[in-house]
């Protein structure tokens, strides 16, 4: 398992965030930004997500939780999310072909998915887990 991989989770689109970013915009939306961060544990899993506080923010600390965002999404239908794995920092500068692995996925309302990432310096694979 890959311990210590930094990961960001971002809500890209839903009826709550009508004009959301594409994966290339890295979080700039016209709606409220909902970005979380975490790090994989010794089993390569994420146990908890914390609100992401951008270094360019005005100093205000985000006070929302993932549960808050999921509650806000109730009744809005499907949502689109992105996971960004900082594989460059994990492997070391210049020691991986993929310095960031980005996985965009869709979640139907009320569903809960695992999104495993199988990772090596020069390849990766992902799938929808149960």
UniProtKB/TrEMBL annotation:
InterPro entries: Transthyretin/HIU_hydrolase_d, Transthyretin/HIU_hydrolase_sf, Transthyretin_CS. Keywords: Hydrolase. GO terms for biological process: purine nucleobase metabolic process. The keyword S-adenosyl-L-methionine does not apply. Residues 18-37 are annotated as: Disordered. It comes from the Eukaryota. Pfam families: Transthyretin. Residues 1-129 form the Transthyretin/hydroxyisourate hydrolase domain. GO terms for molecular function: hydrolase activity. PANTHER family: 5-HYDROXYISOURATE HYDROLASE, URICASE AND TRANSTHYRETIN-RELATED. This is Hydroxyisourate hydrolase. The lineage of its organism: Eukaryota, Fungi, Dikarya, Ascomycota, Pezizomycotina.
């Amino acid at each position: 398992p890959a311990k210590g991989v930094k990961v960001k989770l971002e809500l890209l689109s839903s009826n709550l965030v009508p004009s959301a970013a594409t994966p290339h915009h890295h979080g700039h939306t016209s709606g409220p930004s909902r970005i979380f961060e975490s790090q994989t544990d010794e089993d390569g899993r994420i146990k908890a997500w914390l609100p992401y506080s951008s270094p360019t923010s005005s100093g205000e600390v985000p006070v929302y939780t993932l549960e808050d965002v999921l509650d806000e999404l109730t009744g809005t239908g499907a949502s689109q999310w992105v996971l960004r794995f900082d594989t460059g920092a994990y492997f070391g500068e210049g020691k991986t072909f993929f310095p960031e692995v980005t996985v965009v996925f869709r979640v139907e309302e009320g569903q809960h998915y695992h999104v495993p990432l199988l990772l090596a310096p020069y390849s990766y694979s992902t799938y929808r887990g149960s």
